[in-house]
Known about the structure:
Order of helices and strands: HHHHHH
Structural class: mainly alpha
Radius of gyration: 19 Å
Distance between the termini: 38 Å
CATH class: Mainly Alpha
Oligomer: single chain
Helix content: over 70%
Number of domains: 1
CATH topology: Methane Monooxygenase Hydroxylase, Chain G, domain 1
Low-confidence stretches: 214-223
CATH architecture: Up-down Bundle
Largest sheet: none
Shape: elongated
Amino acid sequence: MRKVFQAELQSIGEELVDMTARVGHAMQQAWTSFATADTELAQEVIAGDARIDFLQNQLDERAIDVLALQGPVASDLRMIVGSLRMSASLERMGDLARHIAQLTRLRFPEPVVPQRILPTFEKMAQLDVAIATDLGELLQTRDLSVASRIIASNERIDELHASVFRIVAQPDWDESAPTTADTTLTSRYLERYGDHGVSVARKVSYLVTGEWDPAAAVDPRAV
C-alpha cells in the first residue's frame, strides 16, 4: 500500500511539472503571436489552454482521491494540499497566456499596442517564460535558490509593469482609448503571470521548510 501511495505522490509531482512546461510554452507562443500579429499561433494558444484546464482537473481529482483513500499526514499532507493550490496557480498562468493570444486575434490585422512600448512587454514576457522554466526546475529539485531567482524575476516584472503606467500617464501619450485599454491589460496579464509563478514558488518553499512566512506571501491581487 505504501508503494502505491508513493507512486501516486510521484505522479502528482510529474503532472505539476508537465503543467509548468505547458504554461511556459503557452506564454512563449502567446508573446510571439502578440509581437508578430500571428493569429494562427494565437489560436493554438487559445485551443491549448483547454488541455491545461484538463490537466488541472485530472491532477485535482487524483489529489482528492489520495486524501480520501490514503489519509496522508505531516509532509505528505502538505504535499497533497500544496499540489491542489499550485495546480490552480498554474492553470491561471495558462489563462493569462490565453488572454494575450486573444488580444492578438481581437485586434488583427492591427498591432495590439504601439511600437514604442513593445520592448518593455518583450522583457516582461521573457521574464515570465524564465519564471515558468525555473518553476519546472524548482518542482523537480526543491532547490530554494531557484525560488529566490523566481522572486527576483518577478520583482523586475513589477518594475516594468509600473513603467508602463508611467508611460501611459505622460502628456505625449496620444493613443486611442481602446489602445490604452489594451496596453494596460497586456501589462496586467504579464505581471499577474509572474505573481502566480511566485505563488507556486512560495508553496514549494513551504513544502521544503515546513514554514510559511506571511510577510513574504504573494500579492493577494494575483487572481
